[in-house]
Please model this.
Amino acid sequence: MLFLSPALLWFLAAAAVPIAIHLINRRRHKTIQWAAMQFLLKASRESRGKKKLRHILILACRALGIAALALAAARPIVSGLIGWGGGSIDTVVLLLDRSASMEIKPGDGLEARRQIVIKKVRDAMNDLGAARLVLIDSASNKPQEIPSPDILPELSAAAATDTAADFPMLLSRAAEFLSDTPGRAEIWMASDLQSSNWHPGDERWSAARASIAALPQKPALRVLSLTGATAQNAALSLLGSRRSGDELLIDLEVLRSGEARGTASVPLTTHLNGTRTTETLTLPGQSLRFQKRVALPPGSETGHGWLSIPSDGNPRDNAAFFAFGPARPVKSIIVSPPGESADYLALAAAPPGFGSLSTSRVDPAMAASAITADLAAILWAAPLPTGPTADALQRFLASGGHVLFLPPGSASDAAFLDMKWSAPGEAPAGKFFILTDWNHDDGPLRDGIDGTPVAANRLKAIRRQMPVGDTAPLARWEDGEPAIARRIIDRGTAWFLGSSPDYAWSNLGDADVLLPAVQRILTAGAGRFDASYLASVGSDAARILPGETRTRLDDHGDPDPANSEYASGVFRLGDRLIALNHPPSEDAPEILSRESLDAVLDGTAYTLLDQAGQSNDPSLARDVWRAFLIAVLLFLIAEALLCLPKKETLNLKSEIQNQKSPSPISS
Amino acid sequence: MHSFIDNDLLSRLGSLPIESRVPMMGNVAGKHRSPHRGSSVEFAEYRKYVPGDDTRRLDWKAFARSDRFYIKEFEADTNLRAYFVVDASGSMKFAGKGESKIQYARRIAASLAYLLVNQGDAAGLSICTDKLRLEVPPSRRAAHLERFFSTLGKLEPSGETGLIPALHTIAEKIGQRAFVVILSDLFTDPALLGEALQHLRYRKHDISVFHLMDPLEIGFEFDRPHRFVDLEDGTALVAEPNLIADEYKTALREFLTKVRAKCNDASADYQLVTTDTPLEPLLRDFLTARLPKSKH
Model:
């Protein structure tokens, strides 16, 4: 609560007047000679408890009535946004979440959450009077002084974007800014608390908190939570795309808002080279992941387009843009001595009939020269490389390539990136090593895009070797030992599979596991060739390089030139063709829990203002002097009621008169 | 002339006799019924002649009719002796906004004594504090009234009440039936008061109780804290009257109910009187209520 006329708060001292009068009256008693002392003594003994409480309540009502009057005169402004404090605020730093998810509307016909909260902030700032407003928006992450709160709704720095937000960074930037700003400051964090924007597990939070704590005058933190009910919405996300010959394979996801129930039909429109085709998607639940095959015009080298669903609760998540370049073959090599294992790997890497896939076996001794940048992936079924071969492989990984390591078959001390193979182990006679636990959402054994699981439980191994070193297991044998592990190296990934497609080792050759795993690794490895055509808004790839200019190629929607840097669409950046989409994480429905919010803002004594994004509450701060006047009235009424004498008291005289009845003798 | 005597009031009340509610045993003839047979004109009963009876009282007409000797008996009329018991304890000195209780008691006692003597009855006075202090024996002489009034006028209330022992003393001391008028605020134990009244009743006295209360004692209306000092023993108490008014009135109500019940048990004529009550209607109602029903 803030007071627009804090000087009048001195009148709060007047609340002590009734108590002082009471105490003075008690001392200024009058002496009277009294006859009916026996009743007085008895009454004095019995007059405890309720009477005393009643008298205290009367005094409290009088004191509170005066206090409420003084508070009303001081013109209080109240809300969860503005805390208690008589002093004025010098600076307000507004951390504005401009992510795509902030464009959702709380209800049909209403404005987006971002627009609602901006107007509320504007009104609150006008109530605060002379406070300075500094905006740090989640798109630019740069502080910007706002000369007048009234221009906030029209400011391009507060307009809608298709970016994600990074709140640990925003808070650090706020602390950075306030370190040079004297006076009493507050940080208002306006956000829909989307978990992906707050990064609750991020270690940068501790640094941000430390920066806040280190400020000479600790600012108050207010979180304007923009959660709550929303209008019906379906979000279209592009998860990835790759060209396969004359087809573009686009992985898509449609996510309906949390309140949606039952099956729904959503028309999906494809725009490509000026032509438009529409098909109907049937959403059996809240989400649907599917692969859309877009037939490309024969002989086309490059192109772009977009897919869209009808406009709904959030207009920023209804289009997915794509661009593509010339088709290129998916090449791989198998570094292995000749044998059954190499044969099965070759079949898995380039099954017959898939002309775009090619592979060749390379002898381990010749591997260094065979490792080239145009390879999608390398299947390494040999002892771990050392020397120049290891250096070449490491460069391949750093550039975004994928390498699948399979057991060399014998114990070896050779190490690559501090990784080793354990000594081979054999299953007890008549038993197998089987997979019981694997990651269904990530890695080469993840479920299919339609949810179909890989039949990894059919894998039976009699021999195995386990990767030793710092890896993240994605599948485990029944005894808990890692079967498939991953090690991220710069932009690439090294995969470790604990058995070989050899009849003396396992039934990996049956293709239930090997084929999908190898194909997914190849696809991931080849993805880096198509990745240059696709990026998320706000990512490094979406930034223009020196000398480049940004030109928008698509004609979707009504682009805002001032915010083209933060908008999705198909762009030409210099010579680059790139489709920019809102980050898929913006469609994730996970909201930061109160516990997580407490954890990330631990020690900041923040205030949470719930439902700040709801439109039925027009203001974040309200002038509440009327409420205090009503309180004065209520206190006075309560005091009057408490002072009312009881009926018995009023009737005692008449009762005594009635006692003058005729004598018992005469009657 | 005493301040508590209102000649106009007495002249207006002079037409109303003071009647006893029980037969009196006076020593001279008077206008009140006696338990004995006497020589009044009012027939009482016939009884058989027994040797020794005065033959002058034989009813010869009855003998002529029945050939038997009957004695015709008549009611005896005698005078009334009244004892005014005035409580002179310190509490009777209390005066709220009007006159004190003792002054009001003086006016009642003086007025009734005048009327009694005026109709040929005797009036006596007992003044009690924590011990029976003054006593004016009953007399029906007009000159006696001056002593009665003078004693009342000199009366100065002080100390604790001695009403209960005084009533017991009077009950024992008065040999014959009498009219006992008690004027007090009765600030004593109602149980003990009841016993004293029963004692008087046992002695077949006609009891009237004027329970005197000040309006302030009943209303208990104060606008500020007060230091209350007991008129009898000097005990002091600082209190906020508004806070304890309900409890005070509850205690007072309980006390009045008990006192009234004790008076009723002893067949006493109980009058609860506040000192702001005009005296004439009070006494007129009192005297009228005591008249036999045939005289109403």
Observations:
- The two ends of chain A are 74 Å apart (CA to CA).
- The longest helix of chain A spans residues 50-73.
- The domain at 234-327+537-587 of chain A is CATH 2.60.40 (Immunoglobulin-like).
- Chain A has four domains: 2-75+633-658, 91-227+591-620, 234-327+537-587, 330-530.
